[in-house]
Specification:
The protein has 66 residues and is mainly alpha-helical. The chain has one domain. It contains two helices and no strands. Helix 1 packs antiparallel against helix 2. The chain starts with a helix and ends with a helix.
Length: 66
């Protein structure tokens, strides 16, 4: 496996990690008993979604590189 393939593999794994974190935080938000805690986890979901978008853009760019 060359360096580009390894990088793609690592970014794809990071995307999956971000997606899993979003699911975990969504569940935590649903279980939260107070509005502040719920809002905290909902913000974490948004943060992780932002990370996922950045990683996906980078993945596309890397795949287009020679």
């Amino acid at each position: 496996m060359d360096a580009k393939e390894e990088l793609i593999k690592r970014i794809e794994a990071a995307i999956k990690d971000e997606q899993q974190a979003q699911e975990d935080y969504k569940k935590s938000a649903e279980m939260a008993e107070d509005p502040e805690t719920r809002a905290f986890f909902e913000q974490l979901v948004k943060d992780e979604a932002g990370h996922e978008k950045v990683l996906k853009r980078r993945l596309v760019a890397i795949k287009l590189m020679r």
